[in-house]
Amino acid sequence: MNFSAKIKLRKPVRADGTCPVLLQVIIGKTIWPHSLKLGWPPQLFDEELGRCLTSLPPAQRGPDYKAVLEQATADAGGTLPLLAKRAQDYNLLIGQALAKANEVFVSWRLSQQVLTLERFKQDFSTAGSKDDFLTYFKAKITERYRKGKITQTTKKNHFSTYNALLAFRPYIPFNTLTPEFADDFDAYLKKHVRGLNTRWGRHKDVKTYLALAKKDRMKFEDPYADFKNKDVAGQWRPLRTAELSDLEAYYKMCAPRTVHRRVLARFLFSCFSSLRLGDLKNIENAAIENREMTFKAQKTYSKTLAETMLPLTRKALRYLEQAQTEEELPGFYNYADQYTNRALTAIGQQLGIESRIHNHVGRETFATEFIRRGGKVEVLQKLMGHTKITTTMKYVHVDNDMKRDAINRLDEQDKD
């Protein structure tokens, strides 16, 4: 397949007398005009060479040449040396853009693989990241968010990991990713990050972007091949059955469209459905029929993944339907996460609930109540959308009452 890149101007001329400077990429029969965010008077631009000029030979000067030159000089700061400096800077940026494009072309030509426009855009946007993992990491976060593959919250978390890496080492060439790297980064995190699960999350994010780099044909040694990423059970604990009942009773007392009723409607739905916070916020995109909800889980972004079906309990469906009727919305009324957590804390204090209430406690409560009522953990795994049953077990909290109930059921089965 043929491909080429050339510098062009986009016409017509703008009000300021300049035209946008473009990198025009042609792959096969597809043309991609990429703006370089530069503008230059067309009378002072050599389209054949793709360069900004500050003067023309007398034979090439048109009737408006003097006015154009005066305007360009004024825009650059008022003197010809300043105009020459701007032209020099712009030509440097133009040269860098062409060099980046040609670097991508050479890389794909040597790989003997088919270059598509989408692949070119990806490699062009991450140019320079083939050497530095940090550059790749940052560019990939931005790209994934732009394409809708990660949410705003995930983007924020991934940038937190990026910043931790940046503080650890400001430059991380791919050829420095040896087995010692993971141990050294872990030692750094232990000095600067208190929570074990936070450290676990930082390593998990790094591994995610290393896997993406491998997929993008970066060559490096896997620094996590022999590293054991340890975590502990989450800090959130499920509500006790009595506490859950207290919240349901208080919900019924709250007037429609009040803050506490809105917050509890969504939270209690989570307690009786297991839905994640991200999916709760996007529930208007789900289809519900015969108490079965079909949706694309926010935690998973594979385009080929089939939609998830989640059977809903009668209670869960009732909270959703009431919220939809009261708010005249397709889903719940969504406040900001921090505001919601503060409201849940205030409700817990008002009702004298000892357990700490938080947006994420709903899934913990559903999982524990499911097991408490005799549900099978392998079924719970599917309901919660986990690929590994070990992940599911982190949500299950076995208390003394559950142990007593299990033994009592055994006694009931043994008549002797």
UniProtKB/TrEMBL annotation:
Keyword Zinc applies: no
Species, as recorded: Hymenobacter negativus
CDD domains per UniProt: INTN1_C_like (cd01185)
Record-annotated Tyr recombinase domain positions: 237-408
Family stated for the protein in its record: Belongs to the 'phage' integrase family.
Keyword presence, Aminoacyl-tRNA synthetase: no
Keywords of the record: DNA recombination, DNA-binding
Name of the protein in question: Site-specific integrase
